[in-house]
Amino acid sequence: MTTTTSSVHAPAVRRLTAKGEATRARIVEAASALVFAHGVTRTGVEDVQREAGVSASQLYHYFGDKQTLMRAVIAHQTTAVLAAQQPELDALDTFEALERWRDRLVALQRSRHCVGGCPIGSIAAEIADDDPEARADLVAGFEQWEAPLRSGLTTMRERGLLADDADPDRLALALLAALQGGLLLTQTRRTTVPLETALDAVIELIRGYAA
Amino acid sequence: MTTTTSSVHAPAVRRLTAKGEATRARIVEAASALVFAHGVTRTGVEDVQREAGVSASQLYHYFGDKQTLMRAVIAHQTTAVLAAQQPELDALDTFEALERWRDRLVALQRSRHCVGGCPIGSIAAEIADDDPEARADLVAGFEQWEAPLRSGLTTMRERGLLADDADPDRLALALLAALQGGLLLTQTRRTTVPLETALDAVIELIRGYAA
DNA sequence: GTGTTGTTGGAGCGACCGCTCCAGAATGAG
DNA sequence: CTCATTCTGGAGCGGTCGCTCCAACAACAC
């Protein structure tokens, strides 16, 4: 129970050919792009078929139903989001790295003209209350995100960059929350100002713990 | 242009009877509750009809289409959200008021068992990119929210509670972003910890500006 | 080659969606 | 009372939704 893989008797596939793997990947990528652009509910299975260039039977061959597909989308977007924050995210152990990470996030949203929020957060807001299994995946996704933040801050404290009374757990969570809220407001207002302000505020708080 | 009322030729009603006003209100309230629980897209017009106890023709008599109804929901929820934060929100001019406000928000989410995020923020995440008019309403809603935060912090600075280099605009925006992000993570993780941590972080930053 | 399993195409079903339409009942103005 | 306007009930239409089914093709194991 509470396995990270799909639950009981997923109509998914046991073994996948190289070709099948490619088809499956194309479906997930197409679905991810559409969900990012229009949300889960507004993304129809038929839209995914068209975008991925597959037939209905192919889609339902690899994913038993839409819910399963959406869980695959969550997994895919989690990986993509973390990758988009590299290399800074995995070594957030100096104030300079923290600032570069902040700048990268802001630049990314600016390049998107502030359209679209967080690929994971948006899904969370839409289906966290309605799909328990997806919610578990989202919790895991956020945890994968928070972990490197926590680890970077911990390293900073160990190296004496942060005072002993700085709490890496608290600060990492505050950072993630500021990021999510900043993204939402940036998406709504179509300005990167909220994202910048939210991140800068928490970073300033962290700087207050500089040793 | 950019009026706050509905735009060109809204099929809405010119004059409303007392009875009509009541019916309209019932529809908006039912729709608001359903949207809060299940989101915009998952809320069917038929669901609203059932919940409000009205027929299809009634609903379309008061609201030309679903989009118009959703804009009314945004307006209604904006009022409701602000009301739920009173009396603190309108007088956030001491640290004590700030803490009471924080406690009220946390208690509210706890009483909901962390189900459902921000009534406005959730809608924003879902349709900000797809409905330009709704997005404008949401921007206005957030502004109505941010204004008292800004005004409270400004008062604190004027009274000498905050140093001159404290920027009420920045801090108010950071507070709102932390709140939104905290609510999203709290909704996803089903714990009030993220909300508490996010708000406490920004409040701690503000306290750093205490004169 | 043969059999098994993975892969693909495409028609189509039942349910639900937002919305329309028309006729009748209630209401307010004169 | 008269009449225009507002309000209500309910059937139903065209479209879309998630999904099923069946038959054929391709790839791999032996």
Automatic annotation (TrEMBL), chains A, B:
Residues 44-63 bind DNA. It comes from the Bacteria. PROSITE patterns: HTH_TETR_2. Residues 21-81 form the HTH tetR-type domain. Keywords: DNA-binding, Transcription, Transcription regulation. The keyword Flavoprotein does not apply. This is TetR/AcrR family transcriptional regulator. It comes from Microlunatus spumicola.
